[in-house]
């Protein structure tokens, strides 16, 4: 099977510009920011509203794709672990998953809370959260 | 930015061969099956063990990428909705997300429960579940 090319559907606007300043994950973040969805995908946003929790997939464009073992959270005391047993940003397909609260939506701009992504991170999908 | 090419890290083996037979999502499935991870990614599995819940991302290779609105679950009474407000398999990047119970792991073969994927569906990522 031919492996597919991802389509970037939007981009993150956040005040997180350095990796050292990024929360470890969305459960540890109260940071706010904006998901800008590109206009050609605007129709796909119909039904998203303030107050919802959405599942957002990002492409971590600065992550290595060639590392298979890491020290989780940089803690060497527990030894190396396979990336598939962690939430490390480093993995063969560096797709990150966050559950974010929708603060408001205005056209193709979704204001969110819980953001743990660098400014300019590409967005690849948004899903309804299954309760 | 250049959009990236996904790497298939493995493939699903399940007894679900028809879309009509597939559970709507993992919360409605008690089906079992096997995730075969390709040998070049075997090291990334270190730390995965029976009893864990893992988050698995799949590439829905049979889904359309060019539909932006759908009738959720085929129910026309509620009208069309944007795919990003649904769990429809149809979306610009047809990545599916399931939380699966690890029944056992033997080398590169992970036996799982809760499977809602067709046989031969490509796997693109596995993550630890955040509790």
Walkthrough of the structure:
Two copies of one chain form a homodimer. Chain A has no helices and eight strands. Chain A has a single domain (10-65, 91-128), classed as Elongation Factor Tu (Ef-tu), domain 3 (Beta Barrel). In chain A, strand 6 (95-106) and strand 7 (109-113) form a beta hairpin. Chain A has a six-stranded antiparallel beta barrel. Chain A has a two-stranded antiparallel sheet with strand order 4-5. The mean pLDDT of chain A is 94. With 131 residues, chain A is mostly beta strands. The first copy, chain A, is 0% helix and 34% strand. At the A-B interface, strand 3, strand 5 and strand 8 of A face strand 3, strand 5 and strand 8 of B.
Describe the secondary-structure layout.
The structure is a homodimer of 131-residue chains.
Chain A: E1 10-13, E2 32-37, E3 53-59, E4 69-70, E5 81-82, E6 95-106, E7 109-113, E8 122-128
Antiparallel strand pairs in A: 1-2, 1-8, 2-7, 3-6, 3-8, 4-5, 6-7
